[in-house]
Amino acid sequence: MKSPTEIAVRQFTPADYEAAIAVNRASYPDYTESLEEWRHWDDTWEHKKYFKARLVAEDGGRIVGWGQINHTPWAFVADKYRIDLTVLPESRRRGFGSAIHDQLLAIADGRGARAVQAAAKESLADGVAFLEHRGYRERKRDWESRLFVRDFDFSRFAGAEERVAKQGIRITTLAEERQRDPEALRKAYELDTDCSQDVPSIDPHTTAPYEEWLAHTIEAPNALPDAWFIAIDSDGRYLGLSDLFSSLDDPTFLWQGLTGVRREARGRGIAMALKLRTVRYGIARGVEHIKTWNDVNNQPMLAINVAMGFVRQPAWVTYEKDLSASSQSRRAP
Ligand SMILES: CC(C)(COP(=O)(O)OP(=O)(O)OC[C@H]1O[C@@H](n2cnc3c(N)ncnc32)[C@H](O)[C@@H]1OP(=O)(O)O)[C@@H](O)C(=O)NCCC(=O)NCCS
């Protein structure tokens, strides 16, 4: 292995966007991201509240890997950080990943971190081994699954949409509601934040202020306001949502955002009616599939997805590395 001193790891600069994104395209061809999306995430990052730093590794002046350490805004814990690192497949097992990782941990240590989290897809053996060999322990497991929409058989769900309509509930979109109700965005925000509380998470969900939610979610370059489905009752109360967003780099699929129904409105068929609309949207847009993730213990959501025919993929495992011992020794007199 090259010694860390032989490997150039330096701060990311805006000139590195394309090269870092190219590392991801080569490493995760099913999950490619665009320059526009990366810039949006960086430009809307709340640096005053949340820490984020990005590094790149070079081999003879060419970027072969990148890494990032950041707070998790949606489950904020001041002394916990998320780490991501990726090395070009042809440059692996030469010490680049370790060099990036060492520097990310040094940053975490310098900030008094108690723990760092990282995730790997269970079928990508090198990522799993890398984390397990460095003291990361599994904390959470999410199944990815994909619904191939072109063959979707709506006859199997005959009555699902009528069942909801008979309760006086209409399914509409954020785009439509914004036309008729100046409060639509605020109501959508409240619904989204309320439903997010019950999504399984290692650390408790934290609520972003309205302006942050707006900038991140609604004003994102891949937002689809006409695929942001909302269930509204006859009193105008927002009861549930299911939203999709696009992958600017890959028009063959859509990402599933949150599907959630307020606690008091559960068990009335609302989630299924919402999800059926997302399938119709996907078909009209001409995509091949919708990608989603669910905690392996999230039975209510998994039951709906299984019934709809989502095909299970390998899981994504979130790991955590405890740094409290090293932090304590550093703080000791
Ligand atoms: C995880 C990842 C970043 C590691 O990158 P990498 O550059 O291969 O990392 P390294 O070369 O430093 O180390 C990888 C292994 O190769 C070994 N290695 C390094 N140089 C070597 C050499 N010359 N000969 C043999 N083995 C070598 C390392 O010791 C290490 O093994 P270990 O875990 O048993 O210590 C890379 O596999 C990747 O991008 N995977 C996809 C993304 C991912 O899953 N990331 C992890 C979570 S964010």
What report would you give on this structure?
The chain is α+β, with helices and mostly antiparallel strands. The chain has two domains: about 160 residues, Gcn5-related N-acetyltransferase (GNAT) (Aminopeptidase); about 170 residues, Gcn5-related N-acetyltransferase (GNAT) (Aminopeptidase). About 35% of the residues lie in helices and about 30% in strands. It has eleven helices and twelve strands. Strand 9 and strand 10 form a beta hairpin. The radius of gyration is 21 Å and the shape is globular. The protein starts with 7 loop residues before the first strand and ends with a helix. The site of coenzyme A has 22 residues, from strand 4, helix 3, strand 5 and helix 4.
Based on the model shown, name its key terms:
333 residues; binds coenzyme A; 12 strands; Aminopeptidase; twelve-stranded mixed sheet; disordered C terminus; alpha+beta
- Content of β-strand: 25-35%
Largest sheet: 12 strands, mixed
CATH homology superfamily of the largest domain: Gcn5-related N-acetyltransferase (GNAT)
Mean pLDDT: 95
What is the number of helical segments per DSSP (H or I, 4+ residues)? 11
General shape? globular
The secondary-structure element order is: EHHEEEHEHEHEHHHEEEHEHEH
Number of strands: 12
Which ligands does the model contain, each kind named once? coenzyme A
User: Pairing-aware structural class of the strands and helices?
Assistant: alpha+beta
Number of self-contained structural domains:
2
CATH class of the largest domain: Alpha Beta
